[in-house]
Amino acid sequence: MRLSTLWAPVERWGEFRRRQRAALEESNRLDPADVPDVELLPVEAVTHPPEGGAVPGPTSAPTSGPLAAFGAAGQPLNRHSPFYLGFFGASGAMLAFGLWTSLGRLATTITLLLVSFFLALALNPVVDRLARRMPRGAAVTLVFSGLILAFVVMGFLVVPPVVDQGGALVQQAPSYVTDLLNARWVRDLDQHYDVIDRLQTEVNARLTDQSFIGGVLGGILGAGRAVLSGVFQVLTVLVLTLYLLASLPRVKHAAYALVPASRRPRVASLSEEIMRRVGSYAIGQVAIATLNACMSWLVMTILGVPYAAVLAVSVGLLGLVPMVGATLGASLVCVVAFFDEPRTALILLVYYVVYQQIENYVIAPRVMQRTVSVPGTVTIIAALTGGALLGVLGALLAIPVAAGMLLLYEEVLVPRQNEA
Question: Percentage of the chain with pLDDT > 90?
């Protein structure tokens, strides 16, 4: 191996060190223009000092000027120093971690805000139509009153049957236990394995166990807190939706004001179209789910299926979930009907197969004709992604978000690529 081959890395390292020293000297150089109104001594005075005079050093005070009383400006920080890089790098990392932690703590608040904004966009088209004939405040009041009325009606449909059926279940519980203990297979098990005595012993031990009682009470209190938290969140969403509906034009105007004036018309037109399509999609999805719930209630009432009102509300709520919601609602109704009467469940199964074909190919295209057409593949990917990120809420918001992204793709990205 030749000596030049071995010496080449040493030369490259020496050249790197020379460049680094030059950069360090340049960063440490103090430009006299950076220190205004300060008289600096000429170079001759430093290189040839007068007799008996001291050579002024780099820290000597200026001879005159407004900064004479405070001394000369010091050297700037060395931005190539490891301490400088490490300090500011660690500060940035801690700031990013703090922001991420704060964002995690605000997850519930952000979720409530997203739900409220989505509801406001869904109700805004109706408010705009009514605002052409009356003041916007009156239109918002009328639409919001209708929303509250819908929630109250659903509460009256769901809560009384659940309370009545729960009370009936509690009253019938002793007879259910007696019938279970008198069953032949239970008596056979008790005769061979002494099951009832062991079960009674275990129940008595649990009832006298303080930790078990504390766990049960803690679970009950936790369920109560969850219910109160859910009620508070629903009220928060309603209040935020009301404020967003009332101030939506001002909010949009303030958001558009942040965009440069040259691009503001384009951004405003695209944003208005995205919000229009999101609102139209939400209204259309609610209309389809409501029709499905009403038809289900009618069919279940004719066939005599128990809990028809509760099941119809469940079908309507599940119908809001894209792709699988209607199927889940139909499955729930068929399972409940099967335990009551298997032939009724078979009739309901045939009905839902026929109805979903009509809904997919006749009702949904007519209702959704004013919204953006999202391809099936994009719909599936968007729903799966939204569900993985935000659960059911993410699945509900995924398709409108995908519709907005498709509009940006068609109106912004593709024309820009064609012009390049």
Answer: 6
Tell me the torsion sign for CA atoms 128, 133, 135, 140: negative
3-state secondary structure of 419: helix
The answer to whether 155 and 131 are in contact (CB under 8 A) is: no
Residue 254 tokens, joined: 């303030």
Position 355 scores a pLDDT of 92
Q: How many CA within 13 A on the CB side of residue 410?
A: 12
Residue segments in the chain with a per-residue pLDDT below the cut of 70: 1-7, 24-80, 162, 165-166, 168-170, 172-173, 176, 206-207, 209-210, 212-224, 368-374, 376, 420
What's the CA gap between 406 and 375, in Å, rounded?
10
Distance from C-alpha of 89 to C-alpha of 413, rounded to nearest angstrom: 36
Retrieve residue 344's tokens: 């009724």
Dihedral angle, C-alpha 21, 23, 29, 32, nearest 10 °: 150
- Both tokens assigned to 331: 């499955």
The string of pLDDT tens digits covering residues 59-76 is 444 555 554 555 566 666
CA distance 396 to 382: 10
* Reported pTM: 0.60
* Residue 36 tokens, joined: 């205004």
Q: How far apart are CA 215 and CA 72, in angstroms?
A: 71
For residue range 218-239, list pLDDT tens digits in order: 666 666 677 778 788 888 888 8
Question: Position 44: which residue type?
Answer: E
